[in-house]
């Protein structure tokens, strides 16, 4: 019997039209993200717009820029972090310094948007209700991808406007590079959402792909100073820099992005058409015949152990890479006062190699804070997915339930930073105790951000994802603040400004103790509020 002959109640949703309802879902997604998308776009655009005046103040003449470009291009440490310097114009230096950061932020934005409107919707049960109406099978995924297209188009336009004063051709190339990077990772996230059974796993898989892309680019750029390494060409982040904005643009590289993005989007649609709503291709392992998780803490550890393991496996090789690049920092800075000043702001007044290592421990500390925020927000996920309510219906108090996840959120970063110290020591070949102290000194700042994220969840549960925005703000302050020489009042907003820059410096432990007190006070306020408020329904 043909679909046309089926009774109305037996016809497929959308009347047999796979894209029916795409426009309505697309408009709904834009309405839901009417604040989130502008924040991402303006944040990335503001980062790029701040670049020209900041670097112009550091390198005020063409001769200074040429000297700095030559020195930085010849140093494998900085190439691994930022990529090769392809030209000594101000626009090229801005792209070198902020291009990788902007590309990573654009990719993260795209990953989160697509997973939010696909697998998140299925987990919450909203997609099932939507699909019962006249909505085609492929409409939700298509609407999510169109939302990502809109966001990345906005990023491309804002980035072009931000750097337009340095040359429209180069600014357009960089804007398109960012937009293309975001679209590729949006398509990758769409595929991950079909493969995995939960939004958390989809985001984790997307983050792993982004991390692998960064490591491949870093290793390739450390090996060659012109972006031509095969490892660089294996990474989408390497493709973005090989478009070469302000340095003889290669427009044909955009074809690589187009081909990869279309292939991944087609794969995502094919997988979506071959699975049931809520199902996945990477099914979870069945549990034990009888339950063995007797406490809320044991359940929290079971839920979070995979995420912690994944982050640890990412931290260790990244730290080995950073450690192996430390010795090259000194050679760069012998004749480059401006760049030496930047690195000293990042890592302290000590010897240049120690300053580089201290800067890297700071970066790893901020990344550990991102993990801590993710672990805290697992409470929000459990509550919004209505898995917390049946658990709390048993003789389990809210504080006891929250304590299991908070223990992971506060102890997990210690595991990550210990792995980072081991990696730095292995890569650099220096004493482990000094590096371990430098890494663990970041913990009070990490705990402060975790406590803030938890308290935000406790007081304003619907605004809990804003914890990511707070952590990202601290990341940006720590990453670009020293280069832009931001005022002290802005730098002090990040708790990482107040931890000692180790190894090499004489530590002042008073601010560290103050951060511990602040974290404890904020956490106590959040626990008191969680005990009294209603659960989300």
From TrEMBL:
Keywords of the record: Membrane, Transmembrane, Transmembrane helix
Transmembrane segments: 35-55, 95-118, 139-165, 171-189, 201-220, 251-272, 308-326, 355-377, 406-426, 432-460, 467-489, 509-528
Protein name, UniProt field: ABC transporter permease
Organism expressing this protein natively: Streptomyces albidoflavus
Lineage: Bacteria, Bacillati, Actinomycetota, Actinomycetes, Kitasatosporales
């Amino acid at each position: 019997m043909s679909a046309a002959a089926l009774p109305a109640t037996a016809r497929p949703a959308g009347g047999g039209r796979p894209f029916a309802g795409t426009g309505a879902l697309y408009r709904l997604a834009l309405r839901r993200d009417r604040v989130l998308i502008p924040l991402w776009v303006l944040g990335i655009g503001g980062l790029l717009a701040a670049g020209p005046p900041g670097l112009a103040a550091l390198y005020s003449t063409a001769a200074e820029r040429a000297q700095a470009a030559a020195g930085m291009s010849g140093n494998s440490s900085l190439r691994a972090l930022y990529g090769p310097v392809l030209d000594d114009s101000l626009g090229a230096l801005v792209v070198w310094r902020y291009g990788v950061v902007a590309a990573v932020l654009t990719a993260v934005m795209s990953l989160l948007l697509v997973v939010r409107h696909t697998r998140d919707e299925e987990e919450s049960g909203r997609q099932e209700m939507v699909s019962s109406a006249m909505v085609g099978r492929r409409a939700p995924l298509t609407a999510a991808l169109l939302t990502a297209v809109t966001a990345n188009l906005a990023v491309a336009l804002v980035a072009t406007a931000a750097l337009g004063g340095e040359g429209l051709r180069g600014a357009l190339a960089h804007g398109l590079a960012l937009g293309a990077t975001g679209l590729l990772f949006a398509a990758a996230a769409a595929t991950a959402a079909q493969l995995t059974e939960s939004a958390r796993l989809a985001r984790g898989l997307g983050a792993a792909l982004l991390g692998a892309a960064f490591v491949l680019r870093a290793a390739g750029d450390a090996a060659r100073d012109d972006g031509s390494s095969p490892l660089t060409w294996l990474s989408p982040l390497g493709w973005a820099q090989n478009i070469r904005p302000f340095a003889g643009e290669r427009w044909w590289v955009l074809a690589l992005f187009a081909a990869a993005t279309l292939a991944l989007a087609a794969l995502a649609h094919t997988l979506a058409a071959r699975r049931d709503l809520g199902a996945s291709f990477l099914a979870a392992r069945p549990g034990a015949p009888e339950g063995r998780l007797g406490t809320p803490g044991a359940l929290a550890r079971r839920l979070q152990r995979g995420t912690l393991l994944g982050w640890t496996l990412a931290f260790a090789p990244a730290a080995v890479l950073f450690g192996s690049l430390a010795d090259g920092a000194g050679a760069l800075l012998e004749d480059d006062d401006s760049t030496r000043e930047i690195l000293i702001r990042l890592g302290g007044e000590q010897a240049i190699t120690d300053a580089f290592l201290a800067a890297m421990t700071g970066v790893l500390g901020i990344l550990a804070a991102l993990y801590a925020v993710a672990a805290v927000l697992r409470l929000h996920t459990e509550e919004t997915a209505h898995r917390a309510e049946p658990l709390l219906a048993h003789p389990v108090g809210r504080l006891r339930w929250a304590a299991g996840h908070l223990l992971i959120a506060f102890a997990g970063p210690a595991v990550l930073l210990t792995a980072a110290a081991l990696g730095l020591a292995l890569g650099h070949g220096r004493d482990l105790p000094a590096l371990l102290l430098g890494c663990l000194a970041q913990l009070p700042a990490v705990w402060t951000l975790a406590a803030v994220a938890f308290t935000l969840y406790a007081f304003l549960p619907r605004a809990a994802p804003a914890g990511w925005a707070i952590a990202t703000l601290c990341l940006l302050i720590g990453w670009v603040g020293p280069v832009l020489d931001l005022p002290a009042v802005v730098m002090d907003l990040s708790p990482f400004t107040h931890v000692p820059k180790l190894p090499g410096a004489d530590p002042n432990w008073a601010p560290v103790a103050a951060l511990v007190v602040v974290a404890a006070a904020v956490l106590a306020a959040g626990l008191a509020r969680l005990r009294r408020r209603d659960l989300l329904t």
